[in-house]
Amino acid sequence: MGDKFYITTAIHYVNDRPHIGHIYENIVADVIARHRRRLGDDVWFLTGTDEHGQKIERSAAKEGISPIELADRVVPYYHDLWKKLDISHNDFIRTTEQRHRLGVLELIRRIQERIPDDIYLGEHSGWYCQSEETFIPENQVKDKKDDSGHPVEWTTEKNYFFKLSRYTEPLLEHYRKNPSFVYPPQRMNEVMSFVEQGLKDLSISRTSIKWGIPFPGNPDHVIYVWMDALTNYISALGFGSGDQDKFDHYWPADVHLIGKDIVRFHAVYWPAFLMAAGVSLPKQVVAHGWWLRDNQKISKSLGNVVRPMNIIEDFGADPLRYYLLREMVFGQDQNYSDESFLSRYNADLANDLGNTLSRAIKMSAQYFDGKTPPTPCDDNDLLRASREIVPEYRRAMDDYAFQRALDAVWRLLVAINSYIVTREPWKMFKENGADESLSRAIWNCLESLRIVWVMMAPFMPATSREALTRLGANADDHSFEWGGLANNVEVKVTDPIFPRADAAAYVGAPALAGETKPADVRPAEAGAPSDKITIDQFMQTELRVAEVRAAERVPKSKKLIQMSIFDGTAERTIVAGIGLTYTPEELIGRKVVIVANLQPAKLMGVESNGMVLAASIDGEPSLLAVDPSVPAGTKVK
Ligand code: MSP
Q1: Long-range contact set of residues 390-396: C-beta below 8 Å, sequence gap at least 24
Q2: What distance in Å separates the CA atoms of residue 541 and residue 506, rounded to the nearest whole number?
Q3: Of 153, 286, 351, 636, which has the maximum CB count within 10 A?
Q4: Which atom of ligand 1 is nearest to the CA of 12?
Q5: This model's pTM is above 0.90
Q6: Is there an atom of ligand 1 within 6 Å of 229 CB?
Q7: 23 in contact with ligand 1, CB cutoff 6 A
Q8: Residue with the nearest Cα to atom 21 of ligand 1?
Q9: Does 100 contact ligand 1 (Cβ within 6 A)?
Q10: Is 28 in the pocket of ligand 1 (CB under 6 A)?
């Protein structure tokens, strides 16, 4: 085994189901973990959920349930999603687990034992932001709002405090000695300037919150959410609950991967707590940027979330994994849009990656009897290209520059394509048959494609296994060295690895990945004079009762059902994305409500004339029911 490598994600709040921002973080961590594992490292990858505090308490109260019920309801979404996305974590911690509680209490115990006055009872007033669960410095408050626009309240409280002020110098010294403690450098600079201003002591307990770990010796207080949450990184390894071996083996963490909004907690508070407790510090805090929609951070509170389930259902996990890593420059912000997803899917995946693969495999199968060619080749343009590109790819992976790494892969793809175009193997075959030079040429293409798919493996684990198998290589092949592909082994000619998507169908249809479109979120800002419509505007929509006469699934789509619907005067075709919930058989004979005067739209090549109305429960459609005695054609208003 190589080096041990411990990587963590932030633990996600359970006041909402996961959105694309949370997903991005886990995919990035997974790409790093998979890359390290195949290089031989002994990887431990931790993720989990943050289940205490006011946010959760409030969300649960709104739903009329207890916080733990809310957490128990949301956590399965995470498990399900991580499974669907092929996230290869080794452990999942919930802050409501006993091992975590013991870890937090042990951390506090060690601090109190080593430096008794590092934790004291004191009084504090300041601008408290409930949404961020933290005090906001005076200079970041304007019109009772913080930098991100969250409301703040002037709050006075008697709490336990941690003597953070004592750690200003030790922290600065640590940053100076370890300039890449925070990455990218811009974030390190921000942290340095924040700490250089001098640190104030930090409140680490609350009396107004009930949902949390009681403070030792004073159960009226619960432990402040960040002291609680941050400790997950060690409690998950058994710190405080007896399993010292795992802790000794994997701690300190090699990478805490987080979003840029929570750098301060990880790069200032967390190392200070650890210093106080005499525990070694994590090696690096790595911060990614935000996914935005229309230039605003995607978040539950802004109501502009992008949820991934539709994308995963329609395209699979790997295209989404690819898109998120290819589209964003690591560390910076990036806008999400269905259009950019679809254009990357068709151009990069269906066309570049998919077509090159099928083209090369088809030629091999055709000229060499369904097998890889009999002769390898160790001197050619593609070998030189791959020897140049692989080290660049590896450097980029080490720098978390995933976009650069994928660019490098694409350069090899371009080289393969131009090699095919210049060599014209079909001409070689016509002129001289399947001779040795054709064998070498085709083998070169397949071997460089093998290297392409080895490089793609952390990004698209399932597809990479499939592609490697089709190429006649081992599904787990992870050799970057030229020459790995065997001769005379069977290749697999089959369906395209990424079938082309009908972009118009998706872009015209309700948002692929969103529950709310940006226009729905901010009607006033979008320039509308008012967010209410007039009765005349409503009347422009022609709603009618109609009867489903025939129904069948649209080929190659899991979700779309094509129905022949009688609207009172004629039968028309309507396509609806209800196929995951309804079978065609149960729709026939049913009365539905349709929008009858909608312009036609093509969905997966089928023209749809109108729309069937359905309520959407977590993205799952429920058709509007009409009394079966109402005749088709009746107007609904
Ligand atoms: N519970 C805290 C973290 C405690 S870690 C000891 C928290 N939870 S969160 O659910 O709000 O966010 C979890 C992670 O998702 C954070 O790293 C955050 O930066 C990231 N993201 C949340 N929204 C995001 C985007 N729109 N884009 C990218 N990542 C963002 O903070």
Answers
A1: 390/451, 390/455, 390/480, 393/455, 394/480
A2: 22
A3: 286
A4: 10
A5: no
A6: yes
A7: no
A8: 21
A9: no
A10: no
CB 521 within 8 A of CB 304: yes
Q: For residue 71, count other CB atoms closer than 10 A to its CB.
A: 24
Task: Looking at 472-576, list the stretches that DSSP marks H as alpha helix, in order from N- to C-terminal side.
Answer: 503-508, 518-521, 535-539
The SS3 call for residue 202 is strand
Beta-carbon contacts of 96 under 8 Å, excluding residues fewer than 6 positions away, are 51, 52, 68, 71
* CA–centroid distance, residue 401 to ligand 1 (Å): 20
Which atom of ligand 1 is the closest one to the Cα of 291?
27
- Select from 389, 369, 398, 367 the least CA-distant residue to 448: 389
User: Rounded CA gap, 440 and 376, in Å?
Assistant: 6
Spacing, Cα 12 to ligand 1 middle (Å): 6
Q: Is 25 in the pocket of ligand 1 (CB under 6 A)?
A: yes
For ligand 1, the distance from its centroid to the CA atom of residue 9, given in whole angstroms, is: 9
pLDDT in tens, 5-58: 999 999 999 988 888 889 999 999 999 999 999 999 999 999 999 999 988 999
**pLDDT tens by residue, 94-128:** 999 999 999 999 999 999 999 999 999 999 888 98
State which amino acid sits at residue 14. Answer: V
- For residue 514, the 8-state DSSP code is B
Contacts of 483 (CB under 8 A, 6+ apart): 376, 378, 447
For residue 599, what are the contacts with CB-CB under 8 A and spacing of at least 6? none
Contact 368, 434 (CB under 8 A): yes
**Which of 62, 79, 85, 83 shows the shortest CA–CA distance to 15?**
62
- Closest Cα to atom 8 of ligand 1: 12
Structure letter (DSSP) for residue 485: S
Q: How far is the CA of 350 from the centre of ligand 1 (A)?
A: 32
C-alpha 22 to ligand 1 mean position (Å): 6
- Kindly state the helix (H) or strand (E) to which residue 382 belongs, with its residue range: helix 381-398
List Cα–Cα distances, 80 to 51, 60, 551, in angstroms: 18, 21, 31
